[in-house]
Amino acid sequence: MSLQPFLLFSSLSFLLLSVAVAQEEESHNHDDHVDSEVFEYVVGQDDDLSEHDHDHDHSGHSHEGHGHDHSAHSDHDHSDHDHSAHDHSGHDHAGGHDHEHGHSEHEHEHIEELNIFTGAGVNIGGFLFPEIFVIGAGGAFERGANAEDFATSEHDPLHEATFQAIEPELHIDINQKITGLLAGFIHWGEEEDWEGELEEAFLHYHVTDNLAIGGGRFLSRVGWQSEKHVHQWKFVNQNLVNSRMLNEGELIIEGGEGIVHIGNGDLTIGGGGVRTHAHGGEEEEEGGHADEANFNDWVLALDYKFHIGCDETTAISASYVTGENGFGEDTSIYGVGLEKLLCGGEDGFGCGSLLFRSEFLARDFTVAEDGEVADHNDYGTSTALHYGLSDSATLSMRYDWVSAIDDGDELKLHERHRISPALTFFPGESKRLQARIQYDYSDDNGLESEHAAWLQFRWQWGGGEGHDHDHAH
Q: How far apart are CA 430 and CA 426, in angstroms?
C-alpha cells in the first residue's frame, strides 16, 4: 500500500477540521461582536418553478439530505435542495443538507443573521448570493497503483492527496422572477497544475409558477446524478455509468431550456451545442476511439421526474438524449430511474431513514471509420442505499456496473463492476463541514488493482446551513 502521502494528508486534514470546528464554535460564542443584519432569502422549498433555478437537481426534493429527494424536486439532501418540482429526488437526503438548487436557484425563505466567518446571510444587493465549496481528498492503494488508475472523470481524485475541487458559485434571484447561476470548477489536475473552467452560466425567466424558460451554459438533466456538482455528490467519485455515457459525467449544454410542471412532476427540455473537454478519461485509457462515441456537436435532452402516491416518497425518472458524436454520427441515450424514501420524518431523510436510489442508462451509437459504418450499444446502472445513522451521519452503499464493447482495437470498453461502501459525517451544528470515508472494490480486467480507500473533506462558505445546493435547472 502506498500509505505515506495518504497518512500525511489525513493527519493534516483532521488538524484543519479540528481548527475549523473550534473556529465555528468560537464564532457562535461571539456573534454579538460581529456586525450582523437580518435579511430574508429564498430557501427554495416552494413548489413552483422559481425554485428550480437554485437547485441544480432538476428533479426536485431529494430525500437524501433534508427532505425528500423526490424525483421532481431538487435534492433536499442533507446537502441538497433540488426544487424543481416536488421530487423526492429533489430532497436529497443522503448526506447532509444538500441544497440542490434546481435551476430554480436561490429561493431562501428563512431569515439568517449575517456571519462573515461562515458566509451565512452574505449577499450582494439582496439578489446575488455567493458560495464557495472546497473539497480535499486522499487515497490509499495497493502497491503500484495510483489514484489516476481509478478515475473515470476529471472530477474524481487524480492524486494520492489533492484538492479534488474548489467550486465558487454565485446564485441569482431577482424577486423569484429571474434566477440564475454562475458556477466554476478549479482543481489540481493531472499535470500537477491548477486547472479550472466555468461550468455553468445561465439565467431563467419564470413565466408562471408552472413554466420557466432560459438558457446559457448548464449541466444537462439526465436522471438523478448528471446535474450535480462535486460538492453535491454522495460518494467520493463519479458513478461509472455517468462517466461512460454522459461525457465523463459532465454533459454541458450551451443553448436553451424550458421547465414545465406537469402533473406530479417536472419536464425539462434542453438543447444546443456541447461543451467538450480536451482531456482523456476512462475510454481513452482503455484504447481505441470509444471517447468519440460521446456527444461532440449538438444535443437534445429531455427529462421527466414525477412522484407516485400522495405521500411523495416515491419518484420516477425518465430521460432521453440524442445528438451528434465525435464520429459525425448519432448517439442516443435512454434512461429510467427509481427513488424511494422509507421512514422519513417531517423534514424527509433523517435518523433512521432509508433512501433507495437507482438509475439505468442504455446507449445506442453509430461508428464511422474508414468508410465503414457500424452500430453499437452499451448499458450501465448505478444503485445506492443511504441510511441515516443519526442527524449528522449517513451510511451509504453503492453498486455500479457498465457493460463491455469489443470491436477490435478501434473500439474497446471493458465491463466493470464496483461496490462502494461509504460513511459521511457532518461535525458541528451548521453542517458546513463534511468528512467522508469510502472503500471501492472494482472488478475490471482493465485495472491491475481492485482495491482503493478514500478520505474526503468538504468545507462550505456561504449559503444556508449545511446546504450544498443542487442546482436544478
A: 8
Quote the CA–CA distance of 200 and 167 in Å, as a whole number. Answer: 11
For every residue of 371-421, DSSP letters joined together read TEEEEEEEEEEEEEEEEEEETTEEEEEEEEEE--EEBTBSBEE--EEEEEE
The CATH number assigned to the domain holding 225 equals: 2.40.160.10
Concatenate the DSSP letters of all residues of 27-77 into one string.
HHHTGGGS---EEEEB---SSSGGGTEEEB-TT-EETBEES-BBTTS--EE
Instruction: Report the distance separating Cα 44 and Cα 60, nearest Å.
Output: 10
Q: Are residues 179 and 172 in contact, defined by beta-carbon separation less than 8 angstroms? A: yes
159 Cβ neighbours under 8 A, 6+ residues apart: 146, 147, 148, 188, 192
**Domain span at 66:** 4-462
Interior angle at CA 289, CA 286 and CA 292, nearest 5 = 120
In the chain, how many domains are there? 1
Q: How far apart are CA 81 and CA 371, in angstroms?
A: 49
Give the global pTM: 0.79
pLDDT tens string 36-63: 322 222 223 333 343 334 444 433 344 4
DSSP 88: S
Cα distance between residue 380 and residue 241, in whole Å? 5
Over residues 256-300, the pLDDT tens digits come to 999 999 999 999 999 999 987 644 444 444 545 778 899 999 999
